[in-house]
Amino acid sequence: YAQQYDDGVWAAVGLHPIHLVEFHVDPEEIGQDQVPGFTTRVEAFDPEAYRSLARDPKTVAIGECGLDYFRLDKNIDDVREKQHNTFRAQIALAKEVSKPLIIHCRNAYDDLAVILREEDAGSVGGTIHFFAGTWEDAKKFLDLGFHLSFTGVITFARQYDESVMQVPLDRIMVETDAPYVSPVPYRGKRNEPLYVREIAKKVAELRNISYDEVARATTENARKLFRLG
Q: For residues 58 and 2, is the Cβ–Cβ distance under 8 A?
């Protein structure tokens, strides 16, 4: 898809942690109209296959990759180990091709910070996609050199306000995570990339700055991180 466009569309390649084992995600859990449930594929990370994709000029990042403990029984240590090893391998690939990481993390911020530190992932940097941790979590990733990316959840949940207000403006990003998690005023509907403006508006409101300032800063942050020119 990225190669169909000369500009404005790029790719990231990575193996999402939930695809290491089989999970069934019900439509009710997603909670979005016109967005079906799905069953994850069971895959193993093949460095050679991903290396050829990662080296493509249209590929600007490695990810989503990371950790996801949301659907795991806390006693399933083998699945956690598989996630850890797969994530470390993708960090190694990111360092090899000198491209930043797009990191997925759910219910695993402490372990994530440890792995990022041990693997010196800050040398390539990246962004914590759909950041939903505390301000204490946020500071760990900022100290490691990462950006934090916020979604439509900040338009209807207040527990992320402190992080949105405190993150340096040159380290904040906005995204939709479409087709999921539509922002206000589109709750319950299929999310769309265009709705990213609603997240930027909320960031501006919480930080008491203009929408235009947020739009300029987050666009520039993305251009710099992903080397978009």
A: yes
What is the edge-to-edge ordering of all strands in the sheet holding 59-68?
Answer: 11-13, 59-68, 101-106, 126-128, 147-150, 172-174
Cβ(60)–Cβ(40) below 8 Å: no
Find, among 30, 25, 66, 50, the residue nearest to 179 by Cα: 30
H or E segment at 68? strand 59-68
Q: How many angstroms separate the CA atoms of 29 and 20, rounded?
A: 20
Buried b (16+ CB within 10 A) or exposed e, 135-160: bebbebbbebebbbbbbbbbbeeeeb
- Residue 176: name the closest of 160, 208, 153 by CA: 153
pLDDT single digits (tens) 11-53: 999 999 999 987 766 666 666 666 777 777 789 999 999 999 9
Nearest one of 96, 4, 109, 1 to 52, comparing CA atoms = 96
Q: Which of 126, 148, 154 is nearest to 225 (CA)?
A: 126
Confidence grade of residue 85 (pLDDT, cut at 50, 70, 90): very high
